[in-house]
Amino acid sequence: MHKYHLLIDKFINSTISPKERKELEKWVGENESNMSIFKNYVKENYIKITTDFDSDMAYERFFETVKSKKSSSNRFSTLLKYAAVFTVLLTVGFIAKKILISNDSPTTIKVVENEKKTSLGNEIVIKLADGTTKILSSAENDVVSDANGNIVASVVNNSITFDSIPELEKTLASYNEIFIPYGEIFKLKLSDGTLVWLNSGSKLRFPHSFENTDKNRTVYLEGEAFFEVRKNKDKPFIVNTQEVDVKVLGTKFNITSYENDDFIATTLVEGSVSVYENRTPNNGVILTPSFQANYNKFGNKFHKEKVDPGNYTAWINNRLVINNLRFLEILVKLERRYSVKFINNAKNLNDEFYQGEFVDEDIKSVLKTISLSTPFSYEINQNIITITD
């Protein structure tokens, strides 16, 4: 049993390896007894913070959330249920640790919500090289046709596929463009077989065919994307961002390059990539798996470090990972993920750091959990969320 106590400690303190994490998740999901042991250990060692903090109520709320989800009698569904509880309980464990440091007198969470929701008016839009524009639905199957009526792509299950079309390969290279609004994630399959997952608020420019491009396969990214590049040793794949290029032959990696961020981060999952300034190619680094190159836009410098790639690719699977982020950084992530706008009047929270993980949680659940650590009030009015002390 001591072994699993050590694994829980390592998980909560972010020192657990991927292999150890899988072992811990498997153990917790085996039966009710292990879940109870896990729950009590976290409760006694990480949530026994203050007499005013009702940890039983917090656990009960999380269990209620899990129970409300669709259930099944088979063992696989049971394991999924335990995994969901495992995630949210660890989230409480992560965040509750901070109460010792940042909260001597917890306050009551006040929530005032206008249930009426309005759309921000953003939609998934694709613009073909010939000027044809089409709005895509992530919930419907469809096809995309050019100005001449040729079907150039198919839309199925929240993804779009561009197949190789001989007639179009004979023409000069021209670029399509797709925009993914806040609150959406979309997957593309390019004509060379490369897979691209685009995160909320992202834009990608890409040719329908790479046959008539130059010696490289080049695409242009604004925002965040995960690439699974089809290998072609004779024609490297290049992702061009605002200030950084990423050059690969065939590999898996994640790039974050939002216009309003101060950094451009490239995280390698497998293979090898070259990351460099597009205006000064000699200024760059080579990445191997589990390393990240973080480029400071203002200092024009790269910082290379070893990371857990899973923290930076979690968004593909609708997981929200908060990995030692400041409150303001979290709000930016939440705006993109949930298509909301924050007005933060609790300036005292700006430099607070948080850590945790959420799986398929709505915005209210995320805010309530974070407020367990540094209490604040918030009001949700349509898509505007106002945070106050």
Give the gist of this structure.
The protein is of the alpha+beta class.
Report the C-alpha radius of gyration, rounded. Answer: 23 Å
Task: Quickly count the helices.
Answer: 10
The biggest beta sheet reads:
18 strands, mixed
Q: What is the chains' assembly state?
A: single chain
The average pLDDT value, as a whole number, equals 78
Runs in which pLDDT lies below 50 for 5 or more consecutive residues are 47-55, 61-110, 115-121
Helix content: 25-40%
Judged by helices, strands and strand pairing, the structural class is: alpha+beta
Could you tell me how far the N terminus lies from the C terminus, measured between alpha carbons in angstroms?
42 Å
Number of E-type strands: 24
Question: What fraction of residues sit in β-strands?
Answer: 25-35%
Shape: globular
Question: How are the SSEs ordered, and which strands pair?
Answer:
Layout: H1 2-12, H2 18-28, H3 32-46, H4 55-67, H5 75-96, H6 99-102, E1 111-114, E2 124-127, E3 133-136, E4 142-145, E5 151-156, E6 159-161, H7 166-169, E7 175-180, E8 186-189, E9 195-198, E10 202-207, E11 217-228, E12 237-240, E13 244-248, E14 252-257, E15 263-270, E16 273-277, E17 284-287, E18 291-296, E19 301-306, H8 309-313, E20 319-326, H9 327-338, E21 341-344, E22 353-359, H10 363-370, E23 377-381, E24 384-388
Parallel strand pairs: 1-23, 6-8, 11-12, 21-24
Antiparallel strand pairs: 2-3, 2-7, 4-5, 5-6, 7-10, 8-9, 9-11, 10-11, 11-14, 12-13, 13-16, 14-15, 15-18, 16-17, 18-19, 20-22, 23-24
